[in-house]
Structures are given as C-alpha cells and as structure tokens.
Amino acid sequence: MKRNYFEVPGKFNLKETSTTYETGMDTSLVKAALKKVRKKISKIQDMMYAHDKYSVLICIQGMDTAGKDSMIREVFKGFNARGVVVESFKTPSYKELQHDYMWRHYTKLPEKGKFTVFNRTHYENVLVTRVHPYYLDNERNPYIDTEQLTDDFWHNRMERMVQFEKHWSENGMIVLKFFLHLSKEEQKTRLLKRIEKPKHRWKFSPGDLKERDLWENYQFCYEEVLKNTSHNKGKWYIVPSDDKDVSRLIVATIIYQTLKKYTDIHYPQPEEEVLERINEYKTKLLTD
C-alpha cells in the first residue's frame, strides 16, 4: 500500500474513482495492520513533541456518514493526549463571523511539536458555501454579492487557501489532506442504520436527507477542490471509504509513510555539561 496510489492525479473524474480498495486481507488482519501502523506513528509523534520544531495538520473532509469521527478515534487513539488536538468546524459562531472566513481555522493550527486534526476544514468555505451560496451573506463582506458569484470567485478562494498552506509549510508544518470518498449507495446504508438502530438514532437528522438530495452538487464541488488545491506542500489523498476499516488503514499508512521521511526528527540531547556528568547523577540517585 503506497501513498502515491491515493494522491490526486493530474486528470480524473470523481464519479469514476473507486470508493473501494482491495487489500487482500480480511477484517481482522486489516485491524491488526492498523494497530501496528498506529504504534509507529505514535512513536514518531512522541519524538516530534520532544524535538519541538515540526507540527502536523491533518485535514479530513467527506460527505455525511463518510466516517470522519470514527477515523479520528481509531487512527489517533494511541497518541499521547498532550500531543494531539482535534478541531471540528461547524456553523461559524457570531465571534467567528466578525472576522474573515479563514480566521477561525488559523487560530486552531497546531503548535510546534503537536498534531492537530481538522474534522471538516477551511475547505468548507468552498464546499458547503458553494452548494449553498446564501450562507455567504452571514460573512457580511461588502465585496460579495451572492447573486453575482462566478467560478472565478471560488477559484480565487481556493488559491488563497493554497497560499496559506504553503506559508504554513514554510514554517515547519506538515500538511496532509484526506477526502473520504464514499459511494451514494453506502451512504444510504449508513443513514438507514442510523434510523433503524436506537443507539445510532441520535446521529440522524432530517437535514441529512436534504443534503443527500444535493449529492451531485457536492461531488462537483469536491472534484473542483481536489483538482485545484492539491500541491506539493499540501497534497490531497482520495481515500476509498465504503469500508471503514480499510479507509482507516489507508490514512494511517499515508501518515506514517510521510512522517518517516523526516529523518531529522529526533530526541534532543542534553547539554554537554549534563552528558559529561551523567554517571555522577546516576550514582547520586542510586546511593540516595
């Protein structure tokens, strides 16, 4: 399983991109493989926390029921809690709307030495708002007329986001972006599960069905994002997500394969004076 396989290609059609991936392993082996990769990532994360020079931003996007929440839970469960933060972006608050559309995302970026996972991301500003342009009225931007929007407007926003990501990268942030690619049929199955099983019913909202009716609109907008905002400093990966266990293994593997390339990440060494007296300190402790 190589990360390059899942990178957004130069030309592609999202409708023709598979939502499944054959690993050749049964479910138990996939889960076991995820556990092994997860341990490897957590070791790098611990070292990165001590190294305190790089940070990692994981961006996760996908349609409703694509498995974003469970993805985060299963991939990052082995992390030291002090080294990872999860940020979810829903409807902007009044305070957030008092600033530009990127402000609330900028304030949640990872500190050096830490991971931050964006559950939905800054790309919501060219996804859900493109499907529902009237949402832009809440921004109260005097230069936006929602009745006169063109493709250039959305492409300009996407270009700004790429510029932000390149700036972040230049300051030591590793940016990885994952689109959880779900089929419409699998979404139906998962929505029915929410309705039929009492313990999952709390997750269901009639709004899910209204958004499902706009499936083609969302697919177009996602394809636009993937084509226009994948770059060397912030690549998009299309993750087949009809099988949640497989999608988790793919994401974890890509994270690990990316991070292991940073061979300069290491545990810092104590000052020379401390090293020279290390045996003295050990003796003192043993005889205390």
How many DSSP H or I helices?
Answer: 12
Cα distance spanning the termini? 53 Å
The arrangement of helices and strands along the chain is HEHEHHEHHEHHHEHHH
The CATH topology label is Rossmann fold
Number of domains: 1
Give the name of the CATH architecture. Answer: 3-Layer(aba) Sandwich
Contiguous runs where pLDDT drops below 50 for at least 5 residues: none
Strand-pairing-aware structural class: alpha/beta
CATH class: Alpha Beta
| Major β-sheet strand ordering | 2-3-1-4-5
What does this structure look like?
- The radius of gyration is 22 Å and the shape is globular.
- The N and C termini lie far apart (53 Å).
- It is of the alpha/beta class and 288 residues long.
- It has 12 helices and 5 strands.
- It has helices at residues 27-51, 68-75, 94-97, 103-106, 128-131, 151-170, 184-196, 206-212, 215-229, 244-259, 272-276, 278-287, and strands at residues 55-62, 84-88, 115-119, 173-181, 234-240.
- The protein has one domain (3-287): 3-Layer(aba) Sandwich (Rossmann fold), CATH 3.40.50.
- It has a 5-stranded parallel sheet with strand order 2-3-1-4-5, sandwiched between helices.
Tell me briefly what this model is.
The protein has 288 residues and is an alpha/beta fold. It contains twelve helices and five strands. The protein has helices spanning 27-51, 68-75, 94-97, 103-106, 128-131, 151-170, 184-196, 206-212, 215-229, 244-259, 272-276, 278-287; strands at 55-62, 84-88, 115-119, 173-181, 234-240.
